Amino acid sequence: MHADPNGVLTGVHFLDGDHACCEGTLAAGARFAAGYPITPSTEVVERFAWRIPTVGGIFIQMEDELAASIAIQGAVWGGAKAFTVTSGPGFSLMMEHIGYAAITETPCVFVNVQRGGPSTGLPTLPAQADMMQAKWGSHGDYSIIALCPNSPQECFDLTVTGFNLAEEFRVPVMMMLDECVGHMTEKVVIPEAGQIAITPRRFTYKSPAEFRLFEPREDLVPDMVKAGDGYRFHVTGLTHDERGYPSMNVETQDRLVRRMRDKLKPFANGRAVFEAENLDDAEVVVVSYGITSRVAQRATQMARAQGVRAGKFRIISAWPFPEQHIRELAGRVKAFVFPELNLGQMVHEVERCAAGRAKVISVPHAGGSVHKPEVILQAILEAAR
Amino acid sequence: MSEAILDIPLDSTKTAINPVEPYLRMDRMPHIWCPGCGIGTTVNCFARALESSGLNLDKVAIVSGIGCTGRVAGYANLDSFHTTHGRAIPFATGLKLSNPELQVVVYSGDGDLFAIGGNHFIHAARRNMDIKVICVNNLTYAMTGGQTGPATPTEVISATSPYGVFEPSFNLVQLAEAAGASYVARWTTYHVKQLSRSMEEVLHKKGFCFIEVLSPCPTLYQRRNKMGDGLDAMKFYKEVSKVRHGAPTSECALTRAGEIVVGKFVDRDRPDYLELLNRQMTATLGDRYATPEVTCSEG
Fold first, then answer.
1. Quick one: pLDDT at residue B299?
2. Which residues 240-299 of A have a C-beta within 8 angstroms of B?
3. Are B296 and A66 in contact (CB < 8 Å)?
4. A195, A230, A248: which is the final residue of a domain?
5. Is the pLDDT confidence value at B4 over 60?
6. Distances from the Cα of B130 to the Cαs of A142, B77, B93, B105, in angstroms?
7. Which structural domain range is residue A357 located in?
8. What is the pLDDT of residue B2?
9. Does B78 touch chain A (CB under 8 A)?
């Protein structure tokens, strides 16, 4: 299925990451957004509020992030593709509803344009310190997908991907931008609608009599329905059986929680999104994501110029973590260098996957700016010694 | 004794179906509510209102929050959503806006709607969102063991106010009117006919509608306050309730043992959210305005 041309602003544009992300939501088929203003993310929904009345959809500014993050789920069960947008403090408030989306398997997208924290932190300056929160922030065991664009072009492209993945796996998808990527303006090419692949919602083909709301298909993902079609279904945040009815016992809990984890295995095993460069002969691999990858790119080039065989592994899908690739690299490289705009978050995942087979060097930065390439270069040179 | 009763052969030709059964998920019975609890009574009234409304029930959705009343959605034979604590109204907002042909009913308790969810209540009323909010007010957090809530009257003993509540409580009907609700009524579980009628009325009324139902919680609220059982609550409601349609809501505050003013207090016509949206966009964008088509198509 291809994009609805109504929402696709085909052409060559000069857009910032937030606006490009908005165009991505429209191209992906989102016709409902709920938001609450927060810097540096608001431009995504500002543009949506400006664009959507002529496309045919609804933007509503809710009273807080709790409301925004559940209103979109009401909209999804009403039949919409929907998303919300926020930054650190709002992301914290949305945690409960990320859990609700996970257990009710509600396909939706949360855009987080990361800023410095904790708490109000640095409202106008970048960080990448919500990466663990994106994965673990709501209580209980659950799985999500997180994508990390590093340019306005990717803000467009990956937002479309994010909506498609949300539909395919019925998980909440986190678009993990950062203030720099959100606010940098670059060329963005938006293709024609016919060239944008869209994953349609997989509505059930069964009749109401034979339909069970959480009966998974062979891919462990149940089919969707929407309210008003006569299915008389029940959705609950309680642990539930395949009918969707609450069931307070160990067996149901085990079956449900394991399935919610296992349904993402096909993504984790072979569909990780990443960008690799110069890995064939690499002795040091610089791992990075988001805005930091652009600084890391420079540092890697500087290291090559100094004779260090440095390679690049840019994480694009951060969750599920691309473990297979890191494990494979760990068996043949000397070290990983991992700059992040936090005091060391995703680097723990690299350490876990390297399992002592390669050195792992964290290059932390508390946020508010980006690394200087020289700092990363220094770490690469030390790693190569 | 019970075995002897079971031994009596059932004559299927003489078995009558309870008229509310088609409106309930009978495969989920028995429900979780205590003997004497009033929530079931309100559900019975709701079922009768659905029946008499003549609505296509495939197009009626029910949304609950968390708590004893939060379980209502799970028993209603409708598209039903048991959401998070306090967030039934914003969920219902998204549901209604994405699929406006649905009649969306929010069915939840006083703690859920007015403490943790209070902000959403006033904003949905302000927007005149076209949803119908039914609040079963048992004056306490019952599911968690009978703690003080925003509707608990002063002097009441609760699990978290062992020496008596001293905080002032909300007057829910006044709050609803002040925030902009199009329809405001209050009944008790003694007033089953009137309650059913009010429910039916809001199912046909546009805009944000609010019905408060005083409902007994013998297990926690009444036991702690030596107010007897479920039957005593009915007697109490009968004695102290005064029907005063159109009464100023400012005069309808509840106290521990004083008069309960019931009736329909507000019934006014205001344009609802979608009407305002369409009006504004048409005025500013003219032909460029595309009427919202929010639902996505199948593959």
1. 56
2. 245-246
3. no
4. A195
5. no
6. 34, 21, 8, 9
7. 274-384
8. 46
9. yes
Integer Cα distance of A143 and A128 in angstroms: 20
Q: Tokens at residue B73, please?
A: 């959605």
Cβ contact (<8 Å) for B91 and A238? no
Domain boundary among A138, A164, A195: A195
Q: Which two tokens stand for residue A156?
A: 């467009």
Could you read off the pLDDT of B226-285 as tens digits, one per residue?
999 999 999 999 999 999 999 999 999 999 999 999 999 999 999 999 999 999 999 999
Report the pLDDT value the prediction gives residue B8, as an integer from 0 to 100.
Answer: 61
Domain presence at residue A209: no
The backbone region for B67, taken as left when phi is positive above 0, alpha when psi lies in -120 to 50, beta otherwise, is left
B contacts of A78 (beta carbons < 8 Å): 94-99, 102, 294-295
Question: What percentage of chain A reaches a pLDDT higher than 90?
Answer: 100
Tens-place pLDDT, residues A213-271: 999 999 999 999 999 999 999 999 999 999 999 999 999 999 999 999 999 999 999 99
User: Within this chain, do residues A143 and A24 fall inside the same structural domain, yes or no?
Assistant: yes
Please list every residue in chain A whose beta carbon sits closer than 8 Å to the beta carbon of residue B293: 31, 56-57
Q: Are residues A180 and A307 in the same domain?
A: no
Min Cα–Cα distance to chain A from B30, Å = 13
Q: Which residues of A touch B82 (CB under 8 A)?
A: 234-238, 246
- Token representation of residue B223: 């036991």
A235 neighbourhood in chain B, CB within 8 Å? 80-82
State the CATH number of the domain containing residue B107: 3.40.50.970
Q: How far is the alpha carbon of A58 from chain B, nearest alpha carbon, in Å?
A: 6
Tell me what ipTM this predicted complex has.
0.97
Burial of A210 (0-12, 13-18, 19+ CB in 10 A): exposed
Residue B83: which of B97, B75, B101, B71 has the closest Cα?
B71
Q: Residue B66 pLDDT > 90, yes or no?
A: yes
Average pLDDT over residues A346-357: 98
